Amino acid sequence: MKPIATVGENYQYPPANLAALLSPLMRLNFGEEIQQLCLEIAVSQAPSSQSAAALLGLWVMPPLVHGLSLNIKKYLLVSMPLWAKHVSDEQIQGFVENLMVAVFKPASQPCHPEMCPSALQGLSQAMKLPSPSHHLWSLLCDATGRIFDLLPNRIRRNDLELYISIAKCLSEMTDEGANQVSQITKENIEKAAFVKLYLISQGRLPLMSLTDLLTAAMQHPSKETLAWMILHSLYQARIVNHTNTGVLKRLEWLLELMGYMRNIAYQSASAQNVPPAEALDFLMLIFAAAVVAWADHEAPLLLGLSASWLPWHQENGPGGPAAALLGRSPMHRVTVQEVLTLLPTSMLLLLQKEPWKEQTQKFIDWLFSIMEIPNEAFAATSKDLLKATLLSLRVLPEFKKKAVWTRAYGW
Question: Which residues form the Focadhesin C-terminal domain (predicted)?
């Protein structure tokens, strides 16, 4: 049967009652291999054979699907894009509810963790099918939302690929649908932030949507965890070739962030129930992260950033259970704090490049405005950092203007 299944992947067989031929082999005890080969034939022939589609439809629904081996279930999950359009609405709904979504229950400890990647692989590919029926599309979107809700909020690095896969599913939905599923709440902020940051880094969502995320992140007790995710996302946004992540979009967003910080500093904007000093410290961390991530490639590489999220989840090191969570290991905390150390050097490198250099005067004026805040809304250490950043620009023509350098040195 193996040659028949192999040839059938690329060839539609002449009309035949495949259900009558394959059903006895499926039901009698011929072993797992024969069952899988029968289903492979049914999957490959379902587009042209009603009997193959009928047989397949019976085996993807309870109770028969529960009697299949783990490997066969994984095959059905991965191959779902090939047969989803050729079984009835009731059958595909039964498969999605009783197998695809069910493998993620309960959220804290999936019953079948080895099947979760297969489920999301099949789901993400099924969402790319051209012209799906309204029922199928609604079912897939609903499954995406339910799986997202079932995934734990704190992201274990060993499970990181699951969150990337669910983000890819969301990327196939409309902006409104994706935002509704991944709406940030107090309970899900870490996984929702990661999903949004992944979509932003790939250009699927505009950088400006990051501002809303920052507003929610300021209220989170573990701000450094989110800061590490944002740092990684900002670096990947620079690497990805997309109109939403182009240099002009990044410049526009950074100027917007600077204006937001200035408004909070002078209390002309609210920080959402967060003390201004705490909000500004966090936003300064994000500002530094953006400058370091976009100035050159040396500093990000020294910080351990890369073009992919996945290398991080393969790390094994000391730090206890928290080290297994994304953004919570001691190394991640050190990485986040190091961007502040690198800010003066990276700012100079950034403002020597086009089109950033054209905005040098705006950056200098902004540094002065934050440094000279009359109240105590900004920590002294942060003001010292900004002064060091300003003085690092002394080689630039804009700094050499008498009005600028005398003000910078306090003369």
Answer: 1-411
Predicted pLDDT of residue 1: 64
In whole angstroms, what is the distance from residue 284 CA to residue 297 CA? 21
φ and ψ of 325, to 5 deg: -95, 140
Q: Which regions of the chain are under pLDDT 50?
A: 107-110, 313, 317-319
The alpha helices in 88-133, defined as continuous H runs, are 89-95, 116-126
Question: CB 135: neighbour CB atoms within 10 A?
Answer: 13
pLDDT tens column, 213-224: 999 999 888 899
Residues contacting residue 134 through CB under 8 Å, at least 6 positions apart: none
CA torsion 231→234→235→241, rounded to 10°? 160
The Cα–Cα gap between 285 and 382 comes to: 10
Q: Are 160 and 229 in contact (CB under 8 A)?
A: no
pLDDT of 122-131, one tens digit each?
Answer: 999 999 999 9
Query: To which H or E segment does residue 187 belong?
Result: none
Q: Are 288 and 340 in contact (CB under 8 A)?
A: yes
pLDDT at 293: 97
What pairs with residue 156 in β-bridges?
325
**CA gap 59, 23 in Å, rounded:** 10
Predicted local confidence at residue 108, as pLDDT: 39
Contacts of 210 (CB under 8 A, 6+ apart): 196, 197, 200, 230, 253
